[in-house]
Amino acid sequence: MKRQRKYRILLRWVGLLGSVLWVSCGRQGSDWEHRGCLTLGVDRASVESLPGSDGVSVGPTAASGLDTNDFILTLASVEALDEPLYQGRYADRPTEWFLDPGTYEVSVVSIPFVEPAFDAPQYGDKQLVVVTAGQTVGVTFWAHTLNAGLRFRFTEPFSTVYAGWKVLLTAECGSLDYGLREQRTAYFAPGRLEMLLTDGQQQQSLGSRFLYEGQVLTLTLSSTEPVEDVEAGFSIVVDTSKVWINEDLNLGDLHDGSSRESALTVLELSDHTGKQDVWVVGYVVGGDLTSSSVCFDPPFEKMTNLALAAAPTVRNREECASVELKSGAVREALNLVDHPELYGRRIWICGDVVASYYGLVGVKSISEWIYE
After folding, report:
1. Burial grade of 106 (CB within 10 A; 0-12, 13-18, 19 or more)
2. Fold (topology level) of 32-144
3. Structure confidence by residue, pLDDT tens digits, 234-284
4. Predicted pLDDT of residue 224
5. For the chain, which residues score pLDDT lower than 70?
6. Spans of all domains in the chain
7. H/E/C letters for each residue in the chain?
8. Can you give the pTM of this predicted structure?
9. Per-residue model confidence (pLDDT) at position 62
10. What is the CA radius of gyration of the chain?
11. Residue 56: what pLDDT?
12. Which terminus of the chain is less hemmed in, N or C, by CB atoms within 10 Å?
């Protein structure tokens, strides 16, 4: 009995030693010397910050219905992104990946998102990682909102005046119809979004917006009732949950830019490129323009240009219009170097609308100007 017991103990030790040697060979053998190890994880704090999350980083979150186990994980070499080495549930991933040295792209997303959709926020992260032979690399995903949302709120007077109308939202990734009874948030890939109010026959441009990653923009449309021979007008109140901007944009009737009273807003300029001697209204939000930047904070150094926006709080280059200040009276009157008091003020200018000036829709050849 004693001899059999010693034999069983010896077998256990041999088995344990074999296991240790197997793990050791996996890390220190010839394969380990020529390959690198990749491990993945999701940051707990990032999931806690997601809308509706109850702070659970792995597993379902009761309030939002998110489950990071169900996130879609993709791993691919940067040299063959269309041929993933792995694409599937995050929970089904290997604990460790032994990979050839090189650069890899790893990403996680909560849902696929290829075209506009209602109530479809997409959460996730994407990172590049360099794998080195004989080394372990850890990647921690920071879950955040990847797409952008837009929702409309229609006041009762607006719904009465424009009954039967809808807003057509068009982006590079596709289009969505937003009816006046719609309550959901429409989600788009980050980028420029065109907005058109239509009843199928008539249409009115609401301008365009540039939606940023993680931004949810709320537009409230209100209307004034028609009075005698004057058509009803409407306005847009803008609130973004990320930047907390409130804007009142009095669009009223279709603006044609023929006078100061019918001046085109910055949001309408892209629909009127090529027009000459038209009035434009906006707030001076910056200057010192280059082909890729706008300076939004004084003091300013250039006297040759300035940036206009629909609201004095705008700090995004894509929401601005560029203004050329030619040498002479217009430059002497409107440049921000000599007139810093113009910063943040609303001005009206009469000039030619061009498709691109410093990479933005712009106004050139100014002949008249007025400011508050």
Report:
1. buried
2. Immunoglobulin-like (2.60.40)
3. 444 443 333 333 344 444 444 678 888 889 988 889 888 999 999 999 999
4. 60
5. 1-33, 44-46, 48-49, 51-65, 224-255
6. 32-144, 148-250, 264-371
7. CHHHHHHHHHHHHHHHHHHHHHHHHHHHCHHHHHCEEEEEEECHHHHHCCCCCCCCCCCECCCCCCEHHHCEEEEEECCCCCCCCEEEEHHHCCCCEEECCEEEEEEEECCCCCCCEECCCCEEEEEEEEECCCCEEEEEECCEECCEEEEEEECHHHHHHCCCCEEEEEECCEEEEEECCCCCCEEECCEEEEEEEECCCCEEEEEEEEECCCCEEEEEEEECCCECCECCCEEEEEEECCCCCEEEEECCCCCCCCCCCCCEEHHHHHHCCCCCCEEEEEEEEEECCCCCCCECCCCCCCCCEEEEECCCCCCCHHHCEEEECCCCHHHHHHCCCCCHHHCCCEEEEEEEEEEEECCEEEEEEEEEEEEC
8. 0.57
9. 32
10. 29
11. 32
12. N
282 is written with which tokens? 């906006």
